[in-house]
Amino acid sequence: MVPAPMVARFSHALPFWASLALLPLVALAAHYGGWALLLPPAGAWWLYSGLDALLGRNTDNPDPETPSASLFWYKLVTWIWLPIQLVMIYGTIVYVTQSTHLAGWEKLGVFVGVGILSGSVGIVYAHELMHQPDRFERRLADMMLATVLYSHFRTEHLLVHHPWVGTRRDAVTARYNEGFHRYFLRVLVQAPRSAWNAEKAMLARRGLSVLDGANPFWRYWAMQALALVAALLLGGWEGLGLFLVQAIVAIWQLELTNYVEHYGLTRKYLGDGRYEPVRPHHSWNADHKATNWQFINLQRHSDHHYKPSRRYPLLQTYPDNEAPQLPLGYPLMGLAAMVPPVWRRVMNPKVRQWRKLHYPEITDWGPYKRGEHPVPLVR
């Protein structure tokens, strides 16, 4: 176990600041176009996967009792990303729409790169912040999500995904044999609806109408409208279109990650509309060193679902018999997921092995695969 005084050191937190090194790659793409458009995906997807091959896995666990006050350097990088992301998105809109050296396809390529960072960094940081009790951090998360037009993710993630992961009530638990492309279209429809219904139910328990100002969707929509208007004012219709490109790329990356994190894993049905509690083996885990620096330990996803309020530097990893392990980090697993036959060839045997290890008493998985068990009761 890594002791708390060592965890608190700036040198221990520094690798998690790796996201800042990706920003010059977007600037180079915008300045040069052409070959330079490959730099953001090369940095965000391939560089850290290559480092994983060199550095391997990190199975050390930090002291989970490390006080929050000792984690300043870990928190700071997530706090400063909002202004960085605003400058990256809107500054690039101004630069690209006023440039004369970039062709139309190059401008699109630049904003694919912007979306790679707003998705693989911005949404990941927003995810960390939305789980915290501090209102300042939750507001930072809201603003970052508004810049990718996915504000409902906060509600859906906290009120639906975490309580109901591994059941039919959770739209973003990828089903066994469900290809990513079908999953993506399904989630784009179901997740906003389930988030709205979750807020509606919470307001009803307080005796409030869904139209009440306490419904966060009014804030979500207002912030997203402001983000769109800013793009239009700074870059005209072209700027608005480029803004939408980065948002789509960011959302695609988020849902690709969601797909990888829970594919084929289900909680045991106990009868009477009840399911077993969430345990570490209900999420795919990955403790590859470099990609966990990049994704601020999001790949230690088994512990995140087991202890959702635990800050990212304190997330634990588990041995193979306690949590199922991904063979590679998120970027390469996402690449495999884009080709469903490859994904099934890699992951279906692992799902079947997981079933035998954790649920040897279940001999018929048909009802789970077909979604025949009832939706969990909300108590």
TrEMBL record:
Bilayer topology annotation: Multi-pass membrane protein
One GO MF term attached to the UniProt entry: metal ion binding
Family: Belongs to the fatty acid desaturase type 1 family. AlkB subfamily.
Keywords assigned: Cell inner membrane, Cell membrane, Iron, Membrane, Metal-binding, Monooxygenase, Oxidoreductase, Transmembrane, Transmembrane helix
Transmembrane regions listed in the UniProt entry: 76-96, 108-126
Pfam families per record: FA_desaturase
Domain Fatty acid desaturase: 109-332
InterPro entries xref list: AlkB/XylM (IPR033885), FA_desaturase_dom (IPR005804)
Location of this chain's protein in the cell: Cell inner membrane
Name of the protein this chain belongs to: Alkane 1-monooxygenase
Listed GO CC annotations: plasma membrane
Keyword Cell cycle annotated: no
Main location group: membrane
Upper taxonomic lineage: Bacteria, Pseudomonadati, Pseudomonadota, Alphaproteobacteria, Rhodobacterales
Statement: the UniProt record of this protein carries the keyword Membrane: yes
GO biological process, one term: lipid metabolic process
Naturally occurring in which organism (per UniProt): Maritimibacter fusiformis
